[in-house]
User: Fold these one by one.
Assistant:
Number 1:
Amino acid sequence: MILYFRDNFFNAGRTEIVNENQEPIGEIDLRNAFGSSLEVFGRDGGGPLFGGKFRMMSNKWRVTDSSGEECGVLRYRFTFMSKRYEYDRYGEEVFEITSPAFSRDYEVRNAKGELVVSFQKVSGWLESTAFRLTVHSGRIDGYEWVAVIMGMHEIRKRQNSAGAG
């Protein structure tokens, strides 16, 4: 499964999720410009499949399922020469998300070291951030990975704005 999705310049509003044929198969609702929360919808347009948000005074991204229950947490792990995150899928597994320091390519590996997901930033310099997600294997839905990757993007934006201030 290959999905493409993006952020908005103003961090609010809806954006499409499309497949490799550029056919719409869902959307992301970036709830508002100040709250850093989102919901991920499938192609049927029903209720949200997954959501994500920061808890108050926390830099951990909480992922919720369709019932609003927390199903995992994404956290940044400090490293010098790479970008590293962990996604703890409660009761199942901890996934490691890594990327070399100046790369736009990321890999997600399970506890056995198997490649589960890969994704790349595919946007240009003056465009809003866009991603190409490839789900290689595993039990976790591609739409959940969209919520995780957008959370990673939100964590990076917070780090960049803190560093600028």
Number 2:
Amino acid sequence: MGSSAETAVSEAQTAIETVCPAIALLDVQGTVVGWSQAAQRLVGYSAAEVVGRSAGVLLVAADDRAKAHQLR
């Protein structure tokens, strides 16, 4: 059984992960420059897979990409 300090750290980590929002940071061109672990859990892509790529390719359904591109 773990110590009370280990339990407190585990509970704190769980609380942080629970309230941590899914964050995708984009530059002015729409390129992903930051990606949180919560975003990875939500969308399924790791930071290594998305940083440096266009957010439109990752977050817009294939059928809607042409429409989204026209809105720029």
Number 3:
Amino acid sequence: MTIDRHSLMILVAGPYRSGTGDDPAKLEANVRAMTETALELFRAGHLGVTGEALALPLLEAAGSTGPGDAAYEEIFHPVAEQLLARCDAVLRIGGPSEGAELMVSRARAMGKAVYTSLADVPPAR
């Protein structure tokens, strides 16, 4: 297998809790939107990733009882920040989100590309 040198690892950053009232169905819908965007990036030749894909199983293993508890505070955003450090870019999707805006701000501070739509992401091939 050869690695396409034009392929990017892109963090998909969107709302997770914002506007959900921590309703599990709404949280799941937000995760699904980010995951579907990551899939579109993959199909375009990039590696789209989400912090949620890594953090949520860790939260379950840590015994988290829900968003905002001690395990959530320990794990959720720190996982995204560590992931961001390894990504080439961020794709910001969805509506208002303090966490997603934090990822965008940190990405810019690191000199990483920030995209606001799939159409803005350069082709991988």
